[in-house]
Amino acid sequence: xxxxxxxxxxxxxxxxxxxxxxxxxxxxxxxxxxxxxxxxxxxxxxxxxxxxxxxxxxxxxxxxxxxxxxxxxxxxxxxxxxxxxxxxxxxxxxxxxxxxxxxxxxxxxxxxxxxxxxxxxxxxxxxxxxxxxxxxxxxxxxxxxxxxxxxxxxxxxxxxxxxxxxxxxxxxxxxxxxxxxxxxxxxxxxxxxxxxxxxxxxxxxxxxxxxxxxxxxxxxxxxxxxxxxxxxxxxxxxxxxxxxxxxxxxxxxxxxxxxxxxxxxxxxxxxxxxxxxxxxxxxxxxxxxxxxxxxxxxxxxxxxxxxxxxxxxxxxxxxxxxxxxxxxxxxxxxxxxxxxxxxxxxxxxxxxxxxxxxxxxxxxxxxxxxxxxxxxxxxxxxxxxxxxxxxxxxxxxx
Amino acid sequence: xxxxxxxxxxxxxxxxxxxxxxxxxxxxxxxxxxxxxxxxxxxxxxxxxxxxxxxxxxxxxxxxxxxxxxxxxxxxxxxxxxxxxxxxxxxxxxxxxxxxxxxxxxxxxxxxxxxx
Lengths: 398, 116
Ligand code: FES
Ligand SMILES: [Fe+2]
What we know:
The complex is a heterodimer. Chain A is α+β, with helices and mostly antiparallel strands.
């Protein structure tokens, strides 16, 4: 099971990868510009900005900027560097809100929600400026399945659709917009962003690291090493389907909680219907729990039958990452369902802490320089693929 | 919120309200990790045969704590604390996962709810 790339039919590859990309400060500096400065990055869901004038401010430390996302009167969501064009003051000061425009609190320049300068106090004293030609510095901004992506490259090399490639239609029909944010946890982790992401894109660790939590639900006697149900490479991105143990015996409260919840973590719907998004569990395996999709470089989109999760790995420094995890579920039907959903959140927190529990120690040990390379099994091919894609950006591929 | 009587039929759980009827997920997590195993096992053992009745009772209300009458709101937060404690207790008789490298305090909690 899961020993070929489902997209191409090619056998999975094992291999060796260098340590340097994880620990080297110069490598990190180059990564910031060549990868994060050029790739499409997910910053939000469009439901976070439902009405004209709604805005969000997002820190993009890796590019040393702050992004202002705002929905204009024309309903379009735009992205700007949150900086006033006069002398560079930070423009929006709240993290979110609704505004008809933005006034800089230094000298009072005012911009509308499309970024156009609307008021220029004492305009006569700027004879060299044409206020009509002044607009906030924008970032390319596009929406895919309700996910708001930006690209900081002043001339993006690809459209979002080109960037996503074969991932584009994979989630058509998945009810992202019907689900609601049920939990959002975040942490600052003292490890390279790729070490954090790597821990979240293979299942080889599940029987060991998750022995206290999810191991039995994903690995059973049929599949003791938790081989993936399937895997597929799609250009810069990839997807993997995680096996589910059909013989898993729930504990009493687990059973009750999932019975009463509209979005149990598992079991996933037994016979995925044709209407299910084509890229979700594409082999329609019945022994399946959820998928992991890594949208290069730092966004994981992990759908199951009745819920989905996301991870964002935001680099803060070569050895620091802001980890963000969100769970979206069907809105609870009633207060009983809401209480039952809590079980999933608590369970999720335990699993997340286990996942984060090795990465800091790993980073410390890699930094020692004792190792120059790491060994990946065929089941860990997603890590190999991510590093190959990364290296191609680092080599400045057009 | 001040302590009120739980809804009819749940009087026997009243003694847990002062400690466990907590409004936020973070408070409930803190209470779990700062409680003794005796407290958790008494809480789990008493509520586990009642949790289905609690969930069934709560099904008549919308999924918004604030929308519930005070007594039912307290029953709901008691149920939320039960969910907080039950997973790790029923599997391992423990209060937390063994995860010294990443203690629970390191997780930040952000507001949730609709819309996303
Ligand atoms: S810096 Fe914004 S108005 Fe002067
Ligand atoms: Fe994991």
